[in-house]
């Protein structure tokens, strides 16, 4: 290397070579060369000009960033900014002498704003959101690029600074009126759909084939106000438009909305449709896995988990899906571990928080579970299952008053629909004083949606207490006319036993088990009847019990103590 590598007419300086390699994406080469040149510069400060040192530090930091060494990158970016400060001072003191070489030099200097953005990216990767906000906040608003405003908006939103977040999202839209994620950000912060639409109206009118956008905004405005029915209808109307038919994002949103509305059957259908269109789909697959697990389709859940791990183990979804498999196989400590891993990858994953909360609750750690459900509610205030989880925790710890307050709040904020009525009724059933109220609420819910499974189950529970078995049988037969559900068949079996209809009860338990082979209560109902029918075979029955205990599922999942060792070794499920 020549002693003074300044640019000569004959060839490029060594710093320009570094810049060219950086532009060409040769990050590992840049890292090695810039590291050596920075050492030379340290040993002989006269070797490079301040602007060359600044460039070398930035290119070196960029290569560290590319290698995911974020803390090291931040320290080099900080040094680069200090160097830039010194550079600005010297250039102010000594005005340019009209030297032609100085202009291209300053033009090709890496942007200071870009350096600050990269630093903020490092901080978010290191989960130091406050530092990320501080560095971006320091950029004067007029110099903020759309990506800086977008990052700031997301960070403010996460930190609960809603007003600042709204301002930043609006700034993104002012600069880029088709930034759809910024639109979703505004809608999620309760900005009215009409106001958001007005910010895009000019572009909709000036570009052909964009007339769907105002309907799209309307649809997601309904999503964020929790009006599931109108959101579903609006997205369906978009989906029917020939130009937007078979759009994976719209199908995923529909699946999620059906799930929120408690229509699991349609939700699964839409997820399957989306998945067939895009076999690499990850978004929403955690909800899909949860729905399959709830239906007892554990083999499908396991296959889905393995498939998702092959697509990416850096997203929360595969971990949540595997966690659902463990949870519904009653391996709670492993479910807890997988849920925690998912939250580590994405702290905004509602499904991961719900999984971890449910695992903690079932392990008797109710207070910790409550924290997780509250965080889920903060992230998804329109999702009823977040409130259901919290209310179950209150009931588990006999805090009926808190449960009642929460259920009433949900009823007021999300409106009187079959789901909120049933949730309130569930709490009322826990208190002897409010049994009649529970009955009225359930009747209202079933008038609105006669097929809503949770309401049917709770009404059956009430009729069972009152020993009105014939009414219960009629209710269940009616509910099963248009759908098949393991729990409903099992409860019908219990009611039929109560009125001595043993043969048909046996049939109902069989159907329940064919839908969910792991349904313990159906097995117990069946075995109880068999014992009553043939007491002489009691010993034989015990063998069957043993076999059930060591079924395939048991071998597959291992024991809970094994799961604890697992967590220590960090041998994550699904990673080969």
TrEMBL record:
One of its GO terms (cellular component) is anaphase-promoting complex. Residues 524-576 are annotated as: Disordered. It is found in: Cytoplasm, Cytoskeleton, Spindle; Nucleus. Its main location: cytoplasm. TPR repeats lie at residues 350-383, 486-519. Pathway: Protein modification; protein ubiquitination. It comes from the Eukaryota. Gene3D superfamilies: Tetratricopeptide repeat domain (1.25.40.10). InterPro entries: TPR-like_helical_dom_sf (IPR011990), TPR_rpt (IPR019734). GO terms for biological process: cell division; positive regulation of mitotic metaphase/anaphase transition; protein ubiquitination. SMART domains: TPR (SM00028). Keywords: Acetylation, Cell cycle, Cell division, Cytoplasm, Cytoskeleton, Mitosis, Nucleus, Repeat, TPR repeat, Ubl conjugation pathway. Residues 524-534 have a biased composition (Basic and acidic residues). Residues 539-560 have a biased composition (Acidic residues). Belongs to the APC7 family. Component of the anaphase promoting complex/cyclosome (APC/C), a cell cycle-regulated E3 ubiquitin ligase that controls progression through mitosis and the G1 phase of the cell cycle. The APC/C complex acts by mediating ubiquitination and subsequent degradation of target proteins: it mainly mediates the formation of 'Lys-11'-linked polyubiquitin chains and, to a lower extent, the formation of 'Lys-48'- and 'Lys-63'-linked polyubiquitin chains. The APC/C complex catalyzes assembly of branched 'Lys-11'-/'Lys-48'-linked branched ubiquitin chains on target proteins. V-shaped homodimer. The mammalian APC/C is composed at least of 14 distinct subunits ANAPC1, ANAPC2, CDC27/APC3, ANAPC4, ANAPC5, CDC16/APC6, ANAPC7, CDC23/APC8, ANAPC10, ANAPC11, CDC26/APC12, ANAPC13, ANAPC15 and ANAPC16 that assemble into a complex of at least 19 chains with a combined molecular mass of around 1.2 MDa; APC/C interacts with FZR1 and FBXO5. This is Anaphase-promoting complex subunit 7. It comes from Stercorarius parasiticus. The gene is Anapc7.
């Amino acid at each position: 290397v020549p002693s003074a590598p300044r640019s000569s007419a004959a060839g490029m300086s060594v710093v320009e070579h570094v810049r060219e390699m950086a532009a060409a994406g040769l990050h590992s080469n840049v890292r090695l060369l810039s590291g050596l040149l920075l050492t030379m510069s340290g040993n002989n400060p006269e070797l490079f000009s301040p602007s060359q040192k600044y460039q070398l530090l930035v290119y070196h930091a960029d290569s560290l960033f590319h290698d995911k060494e974020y803390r090291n990158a931040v320290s080099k970016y900080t040094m680069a900014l200090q160097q830039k400060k010194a550079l600005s001072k010297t250039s102010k003191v000594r005005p340019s002498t009209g030297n032609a070489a100085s202009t291209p030099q300053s033009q090709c200097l890496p942007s200071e704003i870009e350096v600050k953005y990269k630093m903020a990216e490092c901080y978010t990767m290191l989960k130091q959101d406050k530092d990320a906000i501080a560095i971006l906040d320091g950029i004067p608003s007029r110099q903020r690029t759309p990506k800086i405003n977008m990052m700031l908006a997301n960070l403010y939103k996460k930190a609960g600074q809603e007003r600042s977040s709204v301002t930043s999202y609006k700034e993104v839209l002012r600069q880029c009126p088709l930034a759809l994620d910024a639109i979703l950000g505004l809608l999620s912060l309760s900005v009215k759909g009409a106001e958001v639409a007005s910010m895009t109206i000019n572009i909709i009118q000036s570009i052909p084939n964009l007339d769907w956008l105002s309907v799209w905004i309307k649809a997601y405005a309904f999503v964020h106000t929790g009006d599931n029915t109108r959101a579903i209808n609006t997205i369906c109307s978009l989906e029917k438009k020939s130009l937007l038919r078979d759009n994976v994002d719209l199908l995923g949103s529909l699946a999620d909305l059906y799930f929120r509305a408690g229509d699991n059957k349609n939700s699964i259908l839409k997820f399957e449709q989306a998945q067939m269109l895009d076999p690499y789909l990850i978004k929403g697959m955690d909800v899909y896995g949860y729905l399959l697990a709830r239906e007892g389709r554990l083999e499908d859940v396991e296959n889905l988990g393995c498939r998702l791990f092959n697509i990416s183990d850096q997203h929360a979804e595969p971990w949540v899906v595997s966690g659902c498999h463990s949870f519904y196989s009653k391996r709670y400590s492993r479910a807890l571990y997988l849920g925690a891993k998912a939250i580590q990858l994405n702290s905004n994953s509602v499904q991961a928080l719900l999984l971890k909360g449910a695992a903690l609750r079932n392990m008797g750690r109710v207070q910790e579970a409550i924290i997780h459900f509250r965080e889920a509610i903060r992230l998804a205030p329109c999702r009823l299952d977040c409130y259901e989880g919290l209310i179950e925790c209150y009931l588990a710890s006999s805090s009926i008053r808190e449960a009642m307050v929460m259920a009433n709040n949900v009823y007021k904020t999300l409106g009187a629909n079959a789901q909120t009525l049933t949730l309130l009724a569930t709490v009322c059933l826990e208190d002897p004083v409010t049994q009649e109220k529970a009955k009225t609420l359930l009747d209202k819910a079933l008038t609105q949606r006669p097929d809503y499974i949770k309401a049917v189950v709770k009404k059956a529970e009430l009729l069972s207490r009152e020993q009105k078995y014939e009414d219960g049988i009629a209710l269940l037969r009616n509910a099963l006319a248009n759908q098949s559900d393991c729990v409903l068949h099992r409860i019908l079996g219990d009611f039929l036993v109560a009125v001595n209809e043993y043969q048909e009860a046996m049939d109902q338990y069989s159907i329940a088990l064919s839908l969910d082979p792991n349904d313990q209560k159906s097995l117990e109902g069946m075995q109880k009847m068999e014992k009553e029918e043939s007491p002489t075979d009691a010993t034989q029955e015990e063998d069957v019990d043993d076999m059930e205990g060591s079924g395939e599922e048991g071998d597959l999942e291992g024991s809970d103590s094994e799961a604890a060792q697992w967590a220590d070794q960090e041998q994550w499920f699904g990673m080969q």
